[in-house]
Write a structure and sequence with these properties.
This protein is mainly alpha-helical. The protein contains six helices and no strands. It has one domain (4-222).
């Protein structure tokens, strides 16, 4: 018999795979975005490819937390079900709508505005997740952190840290759009240098990102601690 928990586990795995796979794809596509030997049209095509690869990863990131919290209710590590679960999913789909709208309008001022709204949601969410994780590990809730239950709060705390890295990477990709508008007007060495610097930072952060994703997956799979 297929249970709700089994379906949630399946969705959680898919979301994690798209997250990791998408970030890997953007990492390798980015080197063509900054290649000055390529024509501007070809570089823009690679940038567009990076955005297309990135949107499933962004979707996976947004879905991972509500799926995890929903599973946590069934595992007894977080006590909020019923209306809380419904409200959580409603807010998640609203956030997803903003994220996908920003993707569709990515080369316009509207897309930049929607991306900034997406980022502001993370500004609120990241400290809330961190506070909840730390408070729970200290025994003050809101999540249960008894014997062999701490893994849930540890995983959430690590996830919040990954969201911080992801937010920086979002800034970098938003910068691409702005800088490519300037480069479309003609050669500009200063902007080219800034573009290369931002890509170098993003590629360095990617290694920490992948390590963090693997660590979050470890705690989720083993439920260690």
């Amino acid at each position: 018999m297929i249970t709700t928990l089994a379906v949630l586990k399946w969705l959680h795995i898919i979301a994690m795979v798209y997250w990791l796979g998408g970030e890997w794809g953007v990492f390798h596509t980015s080197r063509f975005v900054v290649d000055r030997k390529l024509s501007m049209e070809e570089r823009k095509r690679h940038m567009s490819t990076a955005y297309i690869i990135d949107i499933p990863a962004r979707t996976g990131i947004i879905l991972l937390m509500p799926i995890g919290l929903h599973m946590g209710y069934y595992w007894g590590v977080q006590p909020y079900g019923g209306g809380y679960i419904v409200a959580m999913w409603a807010l998640t789909f609203a956030w997803l709508g903003i994220c996908w709208a920003a993707f569709f309008y990515r080369e316009t001022d509207r897309g930049v505005l929607l991306t900034k709204i997406d980022e502001k949601i993370r500004f609120v969410l990241i400290p809330l997740i961190l506070l909840a994780a730390i408070s729970s590990l200290m025994g003050h809730g809101p999540f249960n952190a008894g014997e062999m239950q701490k893994w849930f709060s540890i995983k959430l705390g690590l996830f919040a840290g990954l969201l911080i890295i992801g937010l920086i990477l979002r800034f970098i990709m938003r910068e691409w759009t702005t800088m490519f508008r300037i480069l479309a007007e003609g050669p500009n060495d200063e902007v080219e240098d800034r573009l290369e610097q931002s890509i170098r930072l993003g590629r360095t952060l990617a290694y920490f990102y992948w390590t963090g994703i693997a660590t979050v997956a470890f705690f989720g799979a083993t439920k260690f601690m």
